[in-house]
What does this fold into?
Amino acid sequence: MTSSPLIGVLALQGDVKEHELALEAVGAHTTRVRAVEDLKAIDGLVIPGGESTTMSNLAIRMGLLEPLRAVSSAGMPMYGSCAGMIMLANTVIDARPDQQTIGGLDVTVRRNAFGRQIDSFEIDLEIPAVGELPFRAVFIRAPLVESPGPGVEVLSTLRRGGAAGTIVAVRQGVRLATSFHPELTGDTRIHDLFVQIVRQCS
Ligand code: GLN
It folds into this structure.
């Protein structure tokens, strides 16, 4: 077991720095992943929020998509927030036709699921896997999980409003994904959960 694992943050596009700070706050070391060789030393990978179509195009152009799929298949823990969740999903609804994902997470996600009226919002979530206190979650043009496969654990759903019941956080073994951006609020419990997952398998 490594107490301070090295976590890569995919740094093609998106809010990389905020994830690095959150990961370092919970005792991990971080490094940026931009090229295939950056994958060699890392114990786990965070895929930040941003724009999943751009991230997908950049990953293809940099020759990173297949290597990312290979390390994922080999069991590397991965955490994706927002666009990162889309990158981990096996199936994406409302994807651009050329959009590719790393996959590995047995869910269907719907991009930009909350519509223009409620493009961005903040809400307190219950996430029992990270403790009893509510988790303040920021959603920005967020995806939602439509159909989790049988091996997928639902960690949180929205509780109120028209979107009640919507799945916004899931885990499948070493893969973790949230529709929201925990790196933006200073609550590091999701990052702590991911680092624990990494520690358990390194
Ligand atoms: N709507 C974006 C996408 O489809 C995700 C937004 C985000 O990561 N904040 O990639």
Q: What stands out?
A: The domain at 6-200 is CATH 3.40.50.880 (Rossmann fold).
